[in-house]
Design a protein that fits this description.
This protein is an alpha+beta fold. Among the domains are: 42 residues, no CATH class; 87 residues, Urease metallochaperone UreE, N-terminal domain (HSP40/DNAj peptide-binding domain, Sandwich), CATH 2.60.260. The chain is built from nine helices and 22 strands. A five-stranded mixed sheet has the order 5-6-7-12-11. A four-stranded mixed sheet has the order 17-18-22-21. The radius of gyration is 45 Å and the shape is rod-shaped.
Length: 442
């Protein structure tokens, strides 16, 4: 009793029944393969087979040698027909077997084909055999569509299925297009038209490419054919796509005039893309099922339009979007020390809502690092109609050389009465204080 499974050279054998060992040197496997009648096993060449009993030779049915003459075959048939005729109490099935053997072996052409292939016309339906008709103990069934289907992007039920082209029940990967937008487009909203050139299934011929067609006679409309291949003492039944109809099950008698036999027509589809005010970078706008039709998929793919900031827009050098919804605008203002102390009006250039610039008043006493907020002057908020984010202004103060010189000469005397109370005092003696400081650039 064999239990479990054996693995080696890509072979995995599962069974729990007694196993019969057959050497198979005709497959050049250089090993023994364990076979179990009417069960599934695997060969190192990666296809599964089923083992079946081989019917008796037609010569054995009539009890004559393979080299028997036509007269000997006829005499043997008449003798056995009298014995096994149903009217004389014989077995009807046995009589049919005898009559069939006589029918094949009495026809010179059919007998020659049987001698070469080991198969009758009925057994070879859908395909032919190869020379070398030796007696063999079993047949091997191989479905070439199962064996090679995935190598070409489809399996046995894929585009080359048993009933012709079969489309899968899913869409292809979306086609993505990135669109750069200026800051004013994000602020005011934007719209443009996009033309897509696509291929559509031809409706005139139902994507067959044929105006007139007929059922393929070789495969009887199945799209698949079975062939018997003789390999020494083994008969291999192979199933694969019909070459007469390319696996479609039908033959083209007259090509479709609308698509010139391609099964597709070219068309242009216009997409109107609308970006609402307040749209955000990396936001995706989806247009479903507008890509080209494809026979491998049930539905055409989607188009994804992704927006991003236009790096060439100068406004993005001045303003940047911040906040959990990118609803705020933030900018930096560079002012002098004098402007910090006295206050100043600064005009912000590039704000998308103010073509002439946005003037703002920085109060006296502003300093480096201060942040001021103007409510409602940021970006529109998409989900809150009519509301806007804030404008944030960050102060950067600088001290010019001219300001430094004036402070060193006259500034102390001017500012001392106003600011002296805010200057720290010291208990150090005047002689101990170091005053020979020299300014250097860091």
């Amino acid at each position: 009793m064999f239990e479990g499974w054996r693995e080696g050279k890509g072979t995995a054998v599962w069974d729990v029944s007694p196993m019969t060992l057959y050497p198979v040197p005709f497959l050049d496997l250089n090993e023994w393969v364990e076979l179990s009648h009417h069960r599934t096993f695997a060969l190192p060449c990666y296809f599964a087979t089923s083992v079946m009993s081989r019917p008796a030779s037609l010569y054995d049915v009539l009890g004559v040698p393979k080299g028997a003459s036509s007269t000997e075959i006829k005499k043997a048939y008449l003798k056995m027909a009298r014995t096994h005729h149903p009217d004389k109490g014989g077995d009807p099935e046995k009589f049919k077997e005898i009559a069939h053997a006589n029918e094949v072996l009495s026809d010179e052409m059919r007998r020659r084909r049987y001698d070469e292939t080991g198969s009758t016309d009925e057994q070879m339906a859908g395909g032919g055999g190869m020379p070398g008709g030796f007696p063999f103990p079993f047949d091997v069934n191989v479905n070439l569509s199962d064996l090679f289907g995935n190598m070409f992007g489809h399996g046995p039920n894929g585009p080359m299925g048993p009933n012709g082209p079969v489309r899968k029940g899913k869409k292809p990967v979306p086609s993505t297009q990135t669109i750069p937008l200026r800051l004013e487009h994000f602020y005011l909203g934007h719209q443009f038209d996009l033309n897509i050139n696509r291929q559509a299934f031809c409706g005139a011929c139902d994507h067959t490419g044929a105006k007139v067609r007929e059922t393929c006679k070789r495969c009887n409309g199945q799209g698949m054919v079975t062939q018997v291949v003789q390999m020494g003492p083994m008969a291999m039944h192979t199933t694969g796509p019909c070459m007469e109809c390319q696996g479609k099950g039908q033959r083209v008698l007259e090509t479709c005039g609308k698509c010139a036999g391609s099964g597709f027509t070219n068309e242009t589809k216009k997409l109107t893309v609308h970006f609402p005010p307040g749209s955000r970078p990396q936001e995706t706008f989806i247009f479903p099922e507008v890509c080209s039709d494809h026979p491998a998929f049930e539905r055409p793919g989607d188009v994804h339009i992704v927006v991003q900031e236009d790096a060439s827009d100068p406004a993005f050098q001045t303003f940047r979007r911040v906040g959990d919804q990118l609803q705020h605008l933030e900018t930096r203002v560079s002012v002098s020390l004098s402007e910090c102390l006295l206050g100043v009006v600064v005009t912000l250039e590039g704000h998308p809502g103010y073509d002439e610039g946005l003037p703002i008043q920085l109060p006296a006493g502003s300093f480096h690092g201060d942040v001021y907020v103007l409510s409602g002057l940021g970006m529109p908020m998409v989900r809150e109609n009519g509301k806007y984010g804030d404008l944030r202004i960050r102060v950067e103060a600088t001290l010019s050389e001219e300001e430094r010189e004036r402070l060193s000469v006259r500034g102390a005397d001017v500012l001392r009465p106003l600011l002296q109370p805010f200057v720290r005092s010291t208990n150090a003696s005047k002689e101990s204080i170091q005053t020979a400081l020299k300014r250097v650039k860091d």
